[in-house]
């Protein structure tokens, strides 16, 4: 059975809600899923997984959250190579630039990003959660 890990950072819960949606999608395809905040995550969690979902909102000025997510992403630059990877996150007022930059970065590490990073404005509504579930389903199937 496929093992999927979902690792996220969330300050006010919007990206956390997205992560829960991704988890539900993965589960609905019958795969094993581990949902963890980046504070608890280790490089080993990525190494052991068949597929990885990473979530982080747009912070700073179109950047990843700098104290926990940024160093974690740096730390998995080798571990993520060749892994099926899904990216997601919430944003406020920007144009999604943090996500396109992040996707390019993960691809430069050799991650197999399964589709363009999923972005949702502020708190995900029902449609946003459905998109998260679909992303989880896709990640469980690829
Ligand atoms: C310090 C800080 C910086 C932010 N910078 C951006 C930004 O550059 N672009 C943007 O679109 N939203 C920005 N936002 C808005 C967040 O991305 C948005 O509130 C998001 O929903 C937070 O997700 P979370 O609930 O998972 O923490 C920023 C928010 C904070 C608190």
UniProtKB/TrEMBL annotation:
Q: Which cofactor does it need?
A: FMN
Alphabetical list of SUPFAM superfamilies matching this protein: Flavoproteins (SSF52218)
| Keyword Chloroplast belongs to the record | no
- Keyword annotations for this protein? Electron transport, Flavoprotein, FMN, Transport
The answer, when asked if ATP-binding is one of the entry's keywords, is no
The terms under GO molecular function for this entry are: electron transfer activity; FMN binding; oxidoreductase activity, acting on NAD(P)H
Give the transmembrane ranges.
none
Record-annotated Flavodoxin-like domain positions: 4-140
Question: Which InterPro entries does this UniProt record tie to the protein?
Answer: Flav_short, Flavodoxin/NO_synth, Flavodoxin_CS, Flavoprotein-like_sf
Q: What does this protein do?
A: Low-potential electron donor to a number of redox enzymes.
Q: Which family does it belong to?
A: Belongs to the flavodoxin family.
What is this protein's name? Flavodoxin
Organism (species): Clostridium carboxidivorans P7
Q: What is the lineage of its organism?
A: Bacteria, Bacillati, Bacillota, Clostridia, Eubacteriales
């Amino acid at each position: 059975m496929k093992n999927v890990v979902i690792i996220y950072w969330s300050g006010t819960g919007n990206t956390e809600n997205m992560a829960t949606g991704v988890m539900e999608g993965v589960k609905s395809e019958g795969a094993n899923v581990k949902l963890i905040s980046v504070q608890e995550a280790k490089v080993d969690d990525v190494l052991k997984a068949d597929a990885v979902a990473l979530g982080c909102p747009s912070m700073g000025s179109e950047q990843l959250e700098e104290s926990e997510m940024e160093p974690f992403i740096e730390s998995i630059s080798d571990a993520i190579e060749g892994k099926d990877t899904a990216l997601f996150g919430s944003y406020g007022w920007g144009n999604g630039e943090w996500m396109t930059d992040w996707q390019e970065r993960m691809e430069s590490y050799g991650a197999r990003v399964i589709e363009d990073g999923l972005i949702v404005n502020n708190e995900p509504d029902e449609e946003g959660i459905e998109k998260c579930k679909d992303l989880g389903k896709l990640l469980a199937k690829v």
